[in-house]
Specification:
The chain contains 6 helices and 4 strands. The protein is an alpha+beta fold. The chain is elongated and about 60 Å long.
């Protein structure tokens, strides 16, 4: 990648970032001699990138508060005929198979953002159907969740790595340091989801007992 400060025709200062064809925050566009895209990014784009990291972290944390909270209680909530255990097994079996085939295909077709959005939506049926837990509802919902989870996590890691590279160029920072920072913010939020989910589940149990 190359870095060069310029002024565009509308007098807005931009930073020229040369990346291989796939596209981040295009303000202006040109082609290099070797066929790569030149992406012109506003110097204020770093605030937008940081905002996206925070939004992604909070979105995944919120999703996993609901998901982990229900998952941890499956053996007790849906103990009849082993429904909870079977549904969990379907999730992780389909997730393992999905890891081999779907992430590359989905990210290529939908981009990282599209894959993230679709993956998050696929968690909703499993969470919502806890209110109507049957074999014919939870098992298919668990399979759908498992198939979507692997591409979603691959897209999350890819997206954070990509915007870390752009952020490092804009701020003249080490790429490794920025990647570590962004992943640290993300996993700080995500790891707290399990704690919050367990606290909410504990409060719900105490409420039912009283």
């Amino acid at each position: 990648m190359s870095l060069e400060k310029r002024r565009s025709s509308n007098r807005v200062e931009v930073i020229e970032v040369v990346v291989r064809p796939k596209k981040y925050y295009p303000v202006g566009r040109d082609r290099t001699e070797d066929g790569r895209d030149k992406i012109f990014v506003s110097k204020y784009e770093k605030f937008r990138i940081f905002k996206n990291v925070i939004i992604l972290s909070l979105a995944m944390m919120t999703q996993y508060v609901a998901y982990q909270g229900t998952l941890n209680l499956q053996s007790s909530l849906n103990a009849e005929d082993g429904l909870g255990t079977i549904a969990c097994s379907c999730i992780y079996l389909s997730m393992g198979l999905s890891c081999l085939f779907l992430p590359t295909l989905m990210i290529r077709q939908l981009t990282c953002k599209g894959t993230l959005v679709l993956g998050m939506f696929c968690f909703l049926p499993y969470i919502g159907l806890q209110l109507f837990s049957r074999f014919y509802t939870l098992v298919p919902a668990g399979i759908l969740l498992g198939l979507a989870a692997a591409p979603m996590w691959a897209a999350q890691a890819t997206y954070l790595t990509q915007i870390s590279q752009i952020y490092a160029i804009i701020t003249s920072s080490s790429v490794d340091a920025v990647i570590t920072l962004f992943f640290g913010i993300f996993f700080f939020a995500w790891q707290n989801a399990d704690t919050i989910g367990n606290l909410l589940s504990s409060l719900d149990r105490k409420t039912q007992m009283t």
